[in-house]
Amino acid sequence: MPAGRIALWVASLGGLALCARSLLIGPVPLEVAYVAFAVYFALVIAGVLVPQLEMFGDVLYRGDSSRPEIALTFDDGPHPVTTRRVLEHLARAGVKATFFVIGEKVERHPDVVRDIVRAGHAIGAHGYRHDRLYALKPPAAVADDIRKTCDVIERATGARPHWFRPPVGQLSPRTAAGVKRAGLETVAWSVRGLDGLASAVPERVAERIERGLKPGAVVLLHDASEHDDRFPASIDALPRILESIQRRGLRVSPLDDLFADE
After folding, report:
1. How far apart are alpha carbons 149 and 155 in whole angstroms?
2. What residues are paired with 192 via a beta bridge?
3. Residues forming CATH 3.20.20.370 domain(s) in the chain
4. Which residue, of 8, 46, 253, 254, has the fewest CB within 10 Å?
5. What is the pLDDT of residues 99-138, one digit of tens each?
6. Cα(75)–Cα(224) distance, rounded to whole angstroms?
7. SS3 string of 48-86?
8. Architecture category of domain 59-258 in CATH
9. pTM (2 decimals)?
10. Using CA atoms, how far apart are residues 247 and 242, in angstroms rounded to an integer?
């Protein structure tokens, strides 16, 4: 069982023990109750914001560290300009990546997502819209959203994805339950460049990624901005990142290959 899930169980049992003590012996001191609640609340929030803790569900975020293989993943596309720039860089380097696409953008640019598939890259679902309150959706709504996104992708490409990355990367208990209902697997990351920020600088993005380029790494970058209003810093950082990968003797594979043994 993942350490994050164990921590949640221990904290939950601790809370139940405090409740039982209050019923059988008498109320605990108010400051103790406040501290216990604050610790539990902080733990749950950490579980939502850090999906790698696997507190609420199984998450794939790292491959086998014994093989010199990593995965490049791109979020928030497709976009007719920026996604194709990324595809050009990947083609020159001869590597295959995985693109987590947004359903409504696929409907606007089906030709771009078809270009991704024709180039041999894998496709994952990233929600129909990039809803920043996605973690608050009930499980049924999450499952419906994922199925809708997968339907859109399948109509455009003929292939149905089985990987899902939540918008904003947050995995609440509700989201985890919805993903399970939809029958997909949740994918997070082991290293990211924070290239989606408006203040991101390509050199800084490349430096962050280079520090995490180790066997089994799942790299998170963006092939489009959330609102298609600017070029993500990853566009200019990608050539340097690809050179660093080659220099380290690492092989880039789609998630299907990286997680083939999972």
Report:
1. 10
2. 220
3. 59-258
4. 46
5. 999 999 999 999 999 999 999 999 999 999 999 999 999 9
6. 7
7. HHCHHHCCCCCEECECCCCCCEEEEEEEEECCCCHHHHH
8. Alpha-Beta Barrel (3.20)
9. 0.93
10. 9
